[in-house]
Amino acid sequence: MASFVTHLVCSSCDTKHEAGVEQHVCTSCGSPLLVEYDLDRMRDAVRREEVEEREPTMWRYRELLPLRDDRNRVSMGEGFTPLVRVDALAAELGLRNLWLKDDGQNPTGTFKARGASCGLSLAKELGIREVSMPSSGNAGGAWACYGALAGVQVHVTVPTSVPPLCRAEVLMHGADLVVAGDTLPESAAAAAKHVETDGWYDAATWREPYRLEGKRTFGLEIAEQLGWSLPDVIVYPTGGGLGVVAIYRAMSQLRELGWVSGDLPRMIAVQAEGCRPLVDALERGAEDTVTWPEARTIASGMRVPKSLGHALVLRTIRESGGTGVTVTDQEMLDAMVRTGSTTGIQPCPEGASTIAAIPKLRESGVIDPNERVVAVSTGSALRYQEAMAAATSRP
Ligand SMILES: *Cc1c(COP(=O)(O)O)cnc(C)c1O
Ligand SMILES: [Zn+2]
Fold first, then answer.
1. Average pLDDT over residues 376-393
2. What angle do CA 75, 76, 78 make, to 5 degrees?
């Protein structure tokens, strides 16, 4: 199967980069690269009705993914997770049309499986033997897991604050665990040194173009599951912000293909009160974030004080007409129980943060009660047993 990828393009200065060879960031300005597809050619080659007949994984969208040869696919059923209409929860939150995307049902229990499946498939296709990445927990676990399936050696550099479960998971999949630094930026610096001295393939977020491609399937699925239509609002728990860019990009590509029509959704980034660089930059009207000092939150996936892609994330939020909002850790814990008891879904603290944000977005008039809102639960509560215990402990 041929891919419809034409080239990679710099998200900042538009410089074109060749596809099919190892690429990381823009060679002229150092910004993240984005993958471009020949959508005109694709429009004639595949119809959405064909896609609907395929296997229920993210690879049902293979024409919209960058892999050239299906034999390099590294997959174990990730994606096409349920989009659940949650009427009882919606009524409590003062909305009429609310869906929760439950990505906790992925391998390793988080949506990081989407990025790992796509990223390691491409690494395999490019003949890469060893990859390296810093992680605050969930990405490292997912890459270790898919690395085992791919037969690629994965080195995961984590800060000392990483949850014990994530360390064990990396080791269980035979990956190399490097503990370095107390914060994610410190781990990232340590991992970057290995990339330079040991020649490991740099798979750090925003420095490896294909994770984002995998995460785009989030947006493709939401559109398909809404009967090939777009919601008005997407509420997303944001750390590095890859998902914000990925979902918005996927939906705009679907519109260009003619598979959906109408306005693109407003992207709402939810951040933790204790780590809110994007919300801060939105409030200041700044083009980029500054490193958030002493980042603190139980939601490890949102504990990202600064990321290479933040400028692009801010541009995307603004272009979509969206905004940012913060919630406290206690509000996340309360929302875990509220969601669990009204829907049966078990969201991680990050996922629950989207539910905690909705009453605030209603009160400030950002969301109208009649709008179609999709909240994204990026992972399962089962990965956060301490948070589950804290959320349910009675004084
Ligand atoms: C990584 C992660 C996030 C943040 O994802 P980005 O798209 O990088 O902002 C949110 N939730 C969970 C559970 C995560 O693991
Ligand atoms: Zn550039």
1. 96
2. 85
